[in-house]
């Protein structure tokens, strides 16, 4: 039985910051951001968007009423959780109007959370082939103003509907993974910004890739030549390329050229949104599917997932007949075009806005936020959401 991605959608805030302007304001060469790390724009979430609303808006774009009745599990991968107890999946379940006889949980392992959710969903569908699982990867990447990680911030969510006989990609059984207790990136419960040892994290990202890739080759007897493309978790768009380059000498030059071009296409969306942690790999996959003209049914796509701390996994999927009909490139292009550019000072003001932690009653207007689902305020220590 084939199990995999039946539908995929994403959502990003309507505000963005031009990385050239951020570089100039911070006194660095713009090429350090646009070429050095490969970022052009950074999605900036207004106070009316959090990880719950981003995920709900991403899912609302792809689910129909039949899906809402068939879904009996919601898995929310995030490292930007809003509650130590209640899962964000429960909030999204209610906002989307899903049928009540469902499980709803939140998973955490840095940027690996959504991948863990997909693998868990596959097991559930294997036992319940008539059901569907909604997997969400939603995050707001925050490192602080004027910090080394500031240029790799971002915000957004990817929603994936996992089912039997999927319309887009069947996920293959073969998978290799690796865990090691390291401190390359972390965010203590008392902090709303992340801490990162940038050089060490880059080194570990590549090291974990090589470990799981070599294990995958040994397990499957496959090589780079068997893949139409390889998608990577992208904390910034140059990171995956650094890892890919370490193994390109395994194939001939024409295959190297092909894989590098497909990689470039897989970074188009991430380049204009920034890091979205758990959703990053799947935004890369979506970017590839919607921007490459060379993919056909039966193509094998490699997937490298990495979550600091750290867990890495390499797995693969096979594109299904008619997969391109399930994509929404026109809608996504329109979303990009309608975004509003803000100045560095406006970005800083938004960044410094805080959700109260003392129980204060707070209300925010959502008139300027075009999203269907928004955060409108805080009351009795509870977040209040609106479906327009």
TrEMBL record:
Matches recorded under Pfam families: HMG_CoA_synt_C, HMG_CoA_synt_N
UniProt key word Acyltransferase: yes
Superkingdom, natural source: Bacteria
Keyword Acyltransferase included in the entry's annotation: yes
GO BP annotation list: acetyl-CoA metabolic process
GO MF annotation: an example: hydroxymethylglutaryl-CoA synthase activity
Active site: 79, 111, 233
Keyword field: Acyltransferase, Transferase
Catalytic activity, EC: 2.3.3.10
Domain Hydroxymethylglutaryl-coenzyme A synthase N-terminal: residue ranges: 2-165
SUPFAM superfamilies in UniProt: Thiolase-like
InterPro entries: HMG_CoA_synt_C_dom, HMG_CoA_synth_N, HMG_CoA_synthase_prok, Thiolase-like
Hydroxymethylglutaryl-coenzyme A synthase C-terminal domain: residues covered: 176-247, 253-353
Residues the record lists as binding (3S)-3-hydroxy-3-methylglutaryl-CoA: 143, 242, 275
Family: Belongs to the thiolase-like superfamily. HMG-CoA synthase family.
Protein name: Hydroxymethylglutaryl-CoA synthase
Taxonomic source organism: Oceanobacillus iheyensis (strain DSM 14371 / CIP 107618 / JCM 11309 / KCTC 3954 / HTE831)
């Amino acid at each position: 039985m084939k199990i995999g991605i039946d539908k995929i959608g994403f959502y990003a805030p309507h505000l963005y910051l031009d990385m050239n302007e951020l570089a100039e304001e911070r006194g660095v060469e713009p090429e350090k951001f646009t070429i050095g790390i490969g970022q052009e724009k950074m999605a900036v979430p207004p106070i009316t968007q959090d990880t719950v609303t981003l995920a709900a808006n991403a899912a609302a774009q792809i689910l129909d009423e039949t899906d809402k009745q068939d879904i009996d599990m919601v898995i929310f991968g995030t490292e930007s959780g809003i509650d130590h107890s209640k899962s964000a999946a429960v909030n999204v379940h209610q906002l989307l109007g899903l049928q009540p006889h469902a499980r709803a949980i939140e998973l955490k392992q840095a940027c690996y959370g959504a991948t863990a959710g997909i693998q868990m969903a596959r097991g559930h569908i294997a036992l319940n082939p008539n059901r569907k699982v909604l997997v969400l990867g939603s995050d707001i990447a925050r490192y602080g103003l004027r910090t080394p990680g500031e240029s790799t911030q971002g915000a957004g969510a990817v929603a994936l509907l996992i089912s039997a006989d999927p319309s887009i990609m069947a996920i293959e059984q073969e998978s290799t993974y690796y865990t090691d207790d390291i401190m390359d990136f972390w965010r203590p419960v008392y902090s709303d910004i992340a801490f990162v040892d940038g050089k060490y994290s880059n080194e570990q990202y590549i090291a974990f890739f090589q470990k799981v890739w070599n294990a995958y080759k040994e397990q499957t007897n496959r090589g780079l030549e068997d893949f139409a493309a390889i998608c990577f978790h992208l904390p910034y768009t140059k990171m995956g390329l650094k890892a890919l380059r370490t193994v390109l000498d395994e194939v001939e030059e024409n295959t190297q050229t092909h894989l590098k071009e497909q990689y470039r296409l897989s970074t188009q969306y991430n380049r204009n949104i920034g890091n979205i942690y758990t959703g990053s790999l799947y935004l890369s996959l979506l970017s590839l599917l919607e921007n490459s003209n060379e993919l056909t049914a039966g193509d094998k796509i490699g997937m490298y997932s990495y979550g600091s701390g750290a867990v890495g996994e390499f797995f693969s999927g096979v594109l299904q007949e008619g997969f391109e009909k399930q994509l929404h490139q026109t809608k996504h292009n329109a979303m990009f075009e309608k975004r509003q550019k803000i100045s560095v000072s406006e970005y800083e003001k938004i960044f410094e806005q805080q959700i109260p932690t003392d129980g204060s009653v707070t209300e925010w207007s959502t008139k300027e936020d075009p999203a269907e689902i928004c955060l409108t305020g805080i009351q009795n220590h509870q977040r209040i959401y609106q479906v327009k």
